Amino acid sequence: MKQRYTKRIVAFALALAMVLTGGAFSTVFNNWFLPETLPDLVQSTEKEQTSYSILRGDVFITRTSETMDELGMSSVALKDYPNATYNGFTKRLRPVDNSLLKYETG
After folding, report:
1. What angle do CA 30, 80, 102 make, to 5 degrees?
2. Confidence of residue 19 (pLDDT cuts 50, 70, 90)
3. Angle (CA) 40 42 43, round 5°
4. Closest CA to 87 of 16, 14, 13
5. Which residues make Cβ contacts (< 8 Å) with residue 20, sequence separation at least 6?
């Protein structure tokens, strides 16, 4: 039981340490759509890049804030961001089927 609890703490700490490659909380907070180029870069493993990937159609929602008015702000990825990861201050919603995503970029 104690080992499982420790693993959860480590997993949570890793998630908090990860940054949405492109500005973290502020990128989601300040943009309805993720920008074409994500400005901030962090080192992450291939496993983290797979687990916390950013793909076309993903919706990111801020889950923490200093004020109630800033909770639940969202941003949508209109393209795949290879090697990018998101952080523990946001939640990712990933559609099962992207056929409803009509907006095309580029």
Report:
1. 80
2. very low
3. 155
4. 16
5. 27, 28, 38, 40, 54, 60, 84, 85, 86, 87, 90
